[in-house]
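question for whoever is on the cluster today: can someone run the full assembly for these? two chains, 779 residues total. i dont have access anymore since they changed the login thing
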Amino acid sequence: MTPEQNANPMPTHSLDDIERLGVYQVYTGTGTGTGFLIDATHLLTNCHVVQPYREVAVEMRDRSRIIGRVRRIHPHRDLAIVELARSVDGEVLALSDGEQLKPKQGVHILGFPVGLPLSLTEGVISHARQLLDEQYFLQTDAAINPGNSGGPMLDDQRRIIAVTTCKLNAADAVGFGIPIGDVRRFIDEFRAQSVAFGVQCPACEELIDRAVRYCPSCGSDLEANHDFGEYFETPEAHPLVGFVERALAGANIDPVLARHGSHNWSFHVGSAPIKIWCCCSEHLNFSSPMAQVGNRGLNELFKYLLSEQHAPFSFDLVGSTVRLNLVVHITDVFAPNEHEHLAARVRQFIEKADATDNLLITEYGCQPAPETQTDYLKGGDHGS
Amino acid sequence: MSIASLQCPQPIRRRLTIAPRDYARRDRAIESFEAGDYLTAVQETLCYLLPGAGAPVFADGKFCFVQGSARVRVHLDGDELALTTALMSLTPEAQSTAALRYVLTRLSATGQLYQPRLHEDTITLEFRERLSLLHPAKLAEVLQRMAMESDSNDGWLAQRFGVDAPDREPVAELDEAEFARALEIWNTHWTSVNELMLESRRRRSVRFLDALGSYAANQVRYSLPLFGSVRATLNESADAYTDKDENPNKRDSALAKCIKEMRQVPVEELRRCLGHAQHAINPLHEGTPSLLTSMLGAGHRMQTTGELRSAGRSLEAALELIADYLYLLADHSWPSEVEAALRTGLDLISGKPWREAADVLWNHANQTARFFGSHGERDRDDDDGADDDVVRYDA
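^ ran it for u. tokens below:
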């Protein structure tokens, strides 16, 4: 062994295969974040990732999503525990024993930065116990981006030493994690309680299971720094969100599972990927990137795509990807008498997307789009 | 420095004679829609947006208006309103696959309510909606954008893909004297831009490239009534070389390519693409006092131009000012006295040496912004009995 190898010992546990680790992407109506398994049915993440929702979507490696119910939140320490609708088989990472951490010690951060697939970023501990806003954090220079929140920070032995929470925007490479001691205490307290949903008092950390002004234990004014009552209320949805989610429910799509950040939804129906988003203040777009054009028979394909029979839907081409589109004007959202009609239009769009990708592939020589779920295509081997 | 001055000729493009919009009608349209009187809402929206067309009567369920070379047909079909405008017809000789791909890639899109549709061999832009889902804001958006899209694509599609352009409104040709003058403006302009391009490359200044790109595009837009394929090609190039987010080297190349292409446009093609079109909907943005203030008034923009001038960099200062005047005139409609004031500025410096042009136009810009800009002297004059036009402008 060379002196250099002695100075930087190889990790005992490999991070080569991160895909099998129990680290998953969490989706809500305000954004996305990361969560990791603390056992087969519970995920730990940041409070700010799940708030203000009591139900979130958790995406598995095969891109299927399951519902997660928020059981505990600790707004002050920015932690939350989510109970999954079913057990999952990702590897549960061990929590560190909380031994002394030192500057320059390696840090490995797992998460879904800016919505990308599970990624690993690395750095070192810049400060093991940095005081910020009256709380201690583990400070690191490893890259932290939106979407990393709630993910695990690992040491070289692949043990969780902190939970990613934030970074300083005005500085380079100054990120923070919630120390493992606080995380371990939060988990232990959760396991010792049976309340369906509770919020921990920011002052004394006592569990509170209903909207109260003062902490029953320490008497702190709970409204002083947080809108505490809101943790126990269902948030009022923006009319646009309400419209989309009612329409999705009418098409037998669970809107919670479809949420993909603010005013964005994405899901699959059969083989077809569906995306819904607002491109501006005026248009709500429904789009299904369903197939990629081949090399032959393009004239006939293009004529089919432009034919009037598809109205009120339309096709367009982005590069070589064929998309089926529906555009709803924002003023329609504020015409409640027409919602039933528009919901039917959305339902037709979803049904047409699921049916048409197969047609384009079998009749017009198209290939599945990258996001097509080929297992659901009817007939033939369409590859992947 | 080989070029000593710029010519700013009187425009051949005619001043738009579009009546001002009556915003009360728009408000009435919204009130009618909210009260469930959908047909009145549609009619009020049409009257608001097409002030010169008179109240469209749907007795026979049909109405047509002209926007440049496009005819937009509006008709009632039961409880739905349909808008259509023909775009192109495929012919056996046309490059139909390429044309269809272009339509699917560039004209069909998310974020727009109208879409292209194929009927036998004809592509139309279409929009159809129930009256109860036709909020005036939605209808106005479709009317404006669909008409503009059809007007800006027809000649270009025909030229590039060899398709036919059916159901087009003829555009009045220029007479011989007008065309001779247009040709002179065209040739002089691109010769000047070419010389300034050499200067831009010598200076390697992004700021100079910004001003030159703006001048190159807006001088033509302001002075010549261009339409069809030449306008489409020029606009496509201008999108590239005026894009301030783009790499300056790419913008430089795009401008050089544009100059080369424009200088090679055959005379007969240019003649086919020049004419006086009618526009039912104002194709220009409405100029506002605050825009005048932000462009010509005291602020960062004019301060930096002033610094160039006082540092003896008269060419840059003059070019920036001329480009700004042309932008204001080419892209915006103004009350007649504002337009005349802006035009006067260009007349004062046309053919004048750079230093004199920079000094004169700098003073003129400050004066114009002071008088017509937001909170300008013009505002204070309004207090003692102004005419109707003045009231509309300051509103």
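summary bc i know u wont read the tokens: The mean pLDDT of chain A is 90. Helices of chain A lie at 3-7, 47-50, 180-191, 239-250, 255-258, 298-306, 330-333, 339-364.
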